[in-house]
Amino acid sequence: METTVQKYNELQQFTWNQQKGLTHDAWRFYHKNGFLVVNHFVAEQTCQKLKKQAFKIAQDQQQQETVVFSTTHRQHDKSRYFMESANDIRCFYEELAVAKDGALTKQKQQAINKIGHALHRFDPVFKQFVEGNSIKQLISQLPLVSPKMIQSMVIFKQPYIGGEVGCHQDATFLYTEPSSVIGLWFALEDATVDNGCLHAIPGGHQQGLAMRYCNQNGEMQMVELQNIQWELNAAIPLEVKQGSLIILHGLLPHFSEQNYSSRSRLALTFHLIDTQCNYLADNWLQSV
Predict the structure, then answer these.
(1) Exposed / middle / buried, residue 265 (Cβ in 10 Å: 0-12, 13-18, 19+)
(2) pLDDT tens across 121-141, in order?
(3) Where residue 1 falls among pLDDT bands split at 50, 70, 90?
(4) What's the predicted TM-score (pTM) here?
(5) Is the preceding omega at residue 199 within 30 degrees of 0, hence cis?
(6) What are the DSSP E strand ranges found in the chain?
(7) Residues 87-92: what's their mean pLDDT?
(8) What is the phi/psi pair of residue 173, to 5°?
(9) DSSP sequence for 227-284
(10) What is the enclosing helix (H) or strand (E) of 9?
């Protein structure tokens, strides 16, 4: 008997066409399910180039404090280093790679959780990637009237310690009225169940937005908008090969589990909004 995972693994496979981009069938799948997997979007050579640059940034980064990024404990919420990263390139570390005194217990390149949040603006290698013809064509096909890229990250998902990312919606953090954010998630390495691939709840974007992460009297807080009980047992793993792209609706509930394997799971992510929508001033990320 066909399982849900097998069914979606067959349905979600679309391929990027250099001349035509994505088909109408692909976009129908996206609007119905809230995500879309596109095979063979980024060449292996380009993936290697982006990975090499990410590790170089991690190695060369000089910072006075070691800021942990964790969606479980959210220590970074009170850090100016994090809150002001919209207009810079900054490194954040894995909780399991930082001692109580703030010292790293591993080499930088094995301790880093992610780099954010303006790679697309300030790093020449990532900027060149964003300005390539394929990305421009892809953005032109997104269901956004006036698209603007506002956030970029490399997420490392380190072997054994790559932290869990709890179930969330991107619109919680990048809120517009009406909601418009779309995520582009590029696999720089193979992503599997073993090393912490994305999991998504098909159709979950149709339930609306559950939470907002916003400034409340000078402090960032999670504010409940409606009580939504996500059916996590309905989530499916989005296992993809290196070079694949996953397009994520801003209201799609998705998550990834801790990487307990010996293989990392590097990914490059961009988030775009529609500038014809109202981007609220109490959002955490405020780029200039």
Answers:
(1) buried
(2) 999 999 999 999 999 999 999
(3) very low
(4) 0.93
(5) no
(6) 13-15, 35-39, 89-93, 112-117, 147-155, 165-168, 176-177, 182-187, 198-200, 211-216, 219-224, 236-238, 245-249, 254-256, 267-274, 278-279
(7) 94
(8) -100, -25
(9) -----GGG-EEE-B-TT-EEEEETT--EEE--B-SSS---EEEEEEEETTSEE-TTBS
(10) helix 4-11
